[in-house]
Amino acid sequence: MKAFTRKLGAVVLPPLFYLIMRLLWYTNRKTFHFITPIDERQHVCVCWHAELLMSPQAYRKIHPRHKASAIISAHFDGSLIAGTLKLLRIDALRGSSKKGARQVLLQAFKRIRDGEEVLITPDGPRGPRHSMSDGAIGIALKSKLPIFVMNYQASAYWQLGSWDRFVIPKPFGKIDFYIQSLSLEGMTLEEAKVFLKEKMLEHTIV
User: Fold this and answer.
1) Is there a cis peptide before residue 56, judged by omega within 30 degrees of 0?
2) Which of 12, 74, 105, 107 is the most exposed, fewest CB within 10 Å of its CB?
């Protein structure tokens, strides 16, 4: 029964989540703050796990034609995220730092070689909140790509009691997106993790 329920949920819930995402997107005024210029260059793209409701939509607004894949956990909730992002034309690479890590990294590098952008939540899939895993940094350093950072702040929002304190903007408010491209050139892994975390915390909801 549980397996059937999950299969049904994987079909029914992503379109519902997508509808809610788009409804919140269109009922809020949006301002994009480009801290650095963002052009059509290939990036490794990051946002916090709590900002997954709006940040992928901002990504598609800024890079509407780029082929993109997101690293998403192999858990059931990851299936729901994967199904939702597919409606934004973002493919899923299933795995995480704890499960299927080697395979998903190989897939990520292959997609990058094919010209795609890879999207990652550095504190996903299980946290701790606003932690910085090796994945995004390691991929960016090895591929010599800059990091495309997406953050946002909402004038009014709900914040869930989940580990990531997931943010849901309320309708008819204002959302400020903060976008920047960061180079990690010349940094060690640990230096890059500290640098990226500081930059991603500058414009997030605490």
Assistant:
1) no
2) 12
